[in-house]
Amino acid sequence: MTKHEVTSFAELLRRGIELQKTQRELFRDQRNLMFDGTIGLDSANWMRWIEIYRNAKAYDLKQVPFRRGMRMIAEAGAVRSADERKTLSENLQYYTGRGYDSVLLTFDLSERLEELEETAEMIRAAGLKVWIAYSGPEDLRHSVFVPPQKLEQYLFTLAGYAEGLVLGWRRTALHQLLQDRPFTDLLLRAARRGNARIQVLGESYIGETTETPEYTRTPMFHNPDGVSGTIVSGLGFYGVNVRGALSGVFAPVAGMERVALIVGSRPYHQTLHPSGLTPEQERRIKVSLESKFRAAGCTGTITLHGDGGTVTRSGVKVLTDLLNR
């Protein structure tokens, strides 16, 4: 090894140690960094995120009141074919006829923006409100640190179609990511630039996170000042003592507008196996759960179209919740 090579290696090592120190100081969720293969010294995108965190200025979120009584169905992805347009149209008609008034549109930047805009237009044409969420597959190897300017562009554009923004959904929700304030503020700024009156829902969750032991259920909250309300997640399945949970582990958010996440017959983590129930039986359970949460004081619901899990079609994993698949 030449003297130059030794010097270069030493410099690379020094920079690597410095980067690790910076990451420990700036990012709360170290688990995500361990699994994220896109970060490193040679990633210009990652350096942009570090600069965003270093230069962060707190965003003052002005509260927009939550529209009480919301019944949302989740979720729609970008339509990419005639078959998907047909499936989405049929599902929108089905849920409109059953009293739902909103649809959650999710994205992770793998889609073309035009596809998402078309989906938003289809939802609105069906007489439903659009809510949006930056999301992604529930896999820690899937990086949430996408090119920030592109993320801002998507949020800005889609907010123009939307009634509301969900701060955490699937990959960006508390069970997979503990959002730092600079990350959240980027979402908020971009969405509010696109729509100054967009409502914002935080998250109140009970279950596992990166900071809790495996198989433990611990309450955790992500509700920045100024949010319109909070999604109560980890409870929306058959057999839960709804009133007891809302007055117990979720007592800290009792004064907020609470929106219940409705899963169905079983807890979210058990939905990878067949329940033995027909779709109509599952639907009746979900409608019953919606009523229970409303009676217990929740002012809105978000109900999964499927069961939260995935099925394999032609060798590809597909969310059972997607309204366009």
Describe the fold and architecture.
The chain folds into 2 domains: 3-54, no CATH class; 70-319, Glycosidases (TIM Barrel, Alpha-Beta Barrel), CATH 3.20.20.80. 36% of the residues lie in helices and 20% in strands. The chain has 9 helices and 11 strands. The strands form 2 sheets. It has an 8-stranded parallel β-barrel, surrounded by 4 helices. Helix 6 (148-159) packs across helix 7. The termini are far apart.
Structural topology:
Layout: H1 3-26, H2 30-35, H3 44-54, E1 70-76, H4 82-96, E2 102-107, H5 113-125, E3 129-134, H6 148-159, E4 164-166, H7 181-194, E5 199-207, E6 218-222, E7 229-237, H8 242-247, E8 258-264, H9 279-295, E9 300-304, E10 310-313, E11 316-319
Parallel strand pairs: 1-2, 1-9, 2-3, 3-4, 4-5, 5-7, 7-8, 8-9
Antiparallel strand pairs: 5-6, 10-11
Helix pairs in contact: 6-7
Entry keywords:
two-stranded antiparallel ribbon; TIM Barrel; eight-stranded parallel barrel; 36% helix; 2 domains; alpha/beta
